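User: I've been going back and forth on whether these two constructs are worth ordering. Before I decide, could you fold them both?

Assistant: Sure. I'll take them in the order you sent them. The first construct and its structure tokens:
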Amino acid sequence: MFEIFLRGCKSMTKVPANKIGNVVIIDPVGKKGGLDHYNDSLASSLKKLNIEVKVFSNYTSEFAEPVFKFRFGKSLLFIPSMIFSLMKVFKLLKASKPQFVILHLFKITKSSNSLCREVKKQNIKLIYILHDLDSLIRDNISDKEMFAGLQLADEIVVHNHFSSDLLLQKFPGVENKLTIIPHGNFLDIPTKISKQEAKEKLGLNNSSLKVLFFGMIKPSKGLNLLLQAMMKVNAQLIIAGRMRKKSTSDFNNQLSNLKKEDKLIADLNYISNEKRDLYFKSADIIVLPYRKIYQSGVMIMAMSYGIPVVASDLTPNLEFAGNIDCIEFFKDGDSIQLEEKINFLLVNEERREILKKNAYSLLEKTHNWNLIAERFQQILSR
């Protein structure tokens, strides 16, 4: 299902890894958006292929050094801080002289284009990992600027056919540099802490099952649907993630009603990796009522933790599952059906085990980092 995208693409003649120059991954989001695991897993798997990799991000690891500041929003210091970080990136690139830069992009902007032009001036081959395509369908940047950004890339990686089709509908001229490579799994993340221990650390009771909603809260995530459905579900809802606009005004009544019935645990903040581990370990199921998505890292993470998933039947979610019975789907936007699916899954342990087993199998086979690294190696070898 996730074969390398060959619709008019260049041939992928494999070159020995020792003939591939060193690689730098640039990721301004990093630990703030959960990409630290993505970067380090890709770097580690490429290292097994004898490819040298460095990561410029906002955290420290075997591969990464903190070039960008770890902060939320755009304060008065954002622009000068970003300029300082980019200057540091350019200096490091000149010193390390990589053959390739892999750049994480969630949207194409004038700023990202400026960064890419500087990278190209150093005769470095540029590879985008284009996670989201919002900037391609909004009016805040011209088609000319977006096309210019795409033209700067030597190769473009997206995670599924849904994203590649959407990209080609708007910019059909990029098919020769477009490749589909799936998002890798998180199977090496879960700790050995038990569900009971995780609940105790979070101060959660054992009197009810736990339904988890995890990640940044914004309109496209469909939290309002879940809050409506939970009124008739006999379980506690855990909401773990920060509000994009730092406001709960859109959900105040629903949140208040759930609180009155002792059915809500809300942690509306940035969730550290350590705390995330506890929330995922405590959950009986996770609900992803998204109204719009390109690829869900939260879904892959939940499956990696062995948490059964309830998700809206959006095209990317359906593509992700393929013919594997690994997700309990509900009709997008239908809170009544969502309620039914949650209740069904909570009382049906056998069904939960089937979803967990099938999800694990899918992640091991299709979202394996070693296979993903081999596909990146093919791109680097062109």
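The second construct, handled the same way:
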Amino acid sequence: MEKVRKYGTPPFKVALVHGGPGASGEMAPVARRLAPARGVLEPIQTATTLEGQVQELRAVLETCASLPVILMGFSWGAWLSFIVAARYPHLVEKLIMVGSGPFQDGDAESVGQTRLERFTEKEREEFEALVAALRAPGIEDRDSLLRLGALTRKSDGYDPLTTSIQEHAPVAPRSDVFQGVWPEAAEMRRSGELLDLGRHIRCPVVAIHGDYDPHPAEGVRRPLAATLDQFRFILLERCGHKPWIERQAGDAFYRVLKAELA
């Protein structure tokens, strides 16, 4: 199974880390957009433990990248990149966090409720059933995972482009990765260990967040501003969880990236 995809030409100074856990391949559209001007890595996270994913990402950076890198993580990938930047600061020149989950349990409570409020009654029932199935150990139903992704694109998007992401970047979602990694990550947040790791980050950190993202912006901005020495927060208007698929915010997202990668 592939561990990394490469775009553009060396040196590979940028690495894009997908979300999920288990949503490998979803950063391909961004990698392709950036590749004409620079070498880009798209690590593929396959490990089924949090520590396994940390070491998997570390190994890809050490083996394939021109260090230190600009590390950009999306959603769960923002947390994973945050952890790697804290534990291996020599690997990371700058950390860019896109659509990060909130860093404290109190801020996380609203995410599910916001999503449910954006569904019809029928969609709400289907969403809750799919989430329950995903959390059941040993269940691997790719069609159900793809349907769950379609529902969350509706709840998480402000004005998403209608073209399916799968047409541009095939994603093979893996519930075993989610089931193995997410409980550990959630416990790190609950205990405060996740946020405390920020005290070991030495590079500049930029968080990019959509104002329509169900993950509350203040749940990212407030704790990171209080923890990190070099932190900036950029809020994109008319933008959901995944900026690059947004009709009204996609261009602004890429303008921000161009400036941060310059």
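Notes on the second construct follow. The radius of gyration is 17 Å. DSSP finds ten helices and seven strands in the chain.
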